[in-house]
C-alpha cells in the first residue's frame, strides 16, 4: 500500500483569489510544522507536483517537489518504504542511517519505472536531529537560521541535459528557523532576504485577525505565492514552508 499522500493541489490561474488555493498543513503533529501551496501559472498545465509524507515514519517526515505527478507518487511510495526500512535496521544495530544508500536505491527504482534518466526532484527528509536533502534539479531548498542567515541546501539546475544528483545532510541546531522548498516560480522573482522576512513574520509574528483559521506555516506559503504572482512570475508556483522551531532538537 502507498503510505502518505500526494498533495492534489487545485490548479489556480494567477488572476484568481489566493484564498481559493488548495493548502495542506499538519502543524503541531509532525517533526516539523509545514504549509503547502501550489498555483498554476501562465502555463497550460501543472508540470510539477508536491508530495508530503508525515506521521508515518518515527522521527522523520518527507517533503518533495517532483517533475510530474506520476514521479511524485512513485517516489513518495518508495522513499517512505526505504526510509522506514533503513531507520528500523539502523536502530536495531545502533548505527547511523545510510542516506546515500536510501536515495540511490529510491531513484534507481523510480527512474527505471518512469523511463527517464533526467527525472527531476528535490526531496527533504526532516528528522529531529538532521535534515537530509536530495537534489536532482527542478527546485531549490533553503534553510534559514536566526539573524536572517540563508543556507542553500539545493540549487536549481537550469542548463543540464542530464540531472546531477546531490545529497546534503545538515545537522540541526537550536538556531535553525525554517526551510523553504520551492520551484523557480518563486525563486525567479523573490529573493532570500524577502523570503526570510515574510516567513519569519508569519511564523513568529502577529497574524491578521482574518488569518486565524490558517496555520502560520500555511499562511507563509500563501503569502510567498501571492508575492511571486504580484511580481509577475510566469511559472507554476510550488512552495513548502517547513517550521523547524515547532519541533524539539534532541
Report on this model:
This protein has 250 residues and is of the alpha+beta class. It is built from five helices and twelve strands. The protein has helices at 69-93, 99-114, 184-187, 192-204, 216-230, and strands spanning 5-7, 23-25, 33-39, 49-57, 60-66, 121-127, 130-135, 139-145, 149-154, 166-171, 176-183, 237-243. It has a six-stranded antiparallel beta sheet with strand order 1-4-5-6-7-10, covered by helices on one side. A hairpin with a 3-residue loop joins β8 and β9. This is PPM-type phosphatase domain-containing protein. InterPro entries: PP2C (IPR015655), PPM-type-like_dom_sf (IPR036457), PPM-type_phosphatase-like_dom (IPR001932).
List descriptors.
disordered N terminus; 12 strands; 250 residues; alpha+beta; globular; 6-stranded antiparallel sheet
- Topology as a string of helices (H) and strands (E): EEEEEHHEEEEEEHHHE
Our measurement of the CA-to-CA distance between the termini, rounded to an integer number of angstroms, reads 32 Å
So what's the oligomer here? single chain
Arrangement of strands in the largest sheet: 1-4-5-6-7-10
Low-confidence residue ranges: 1-30
* Binned strand content: 25-35%
Number of helices: 5
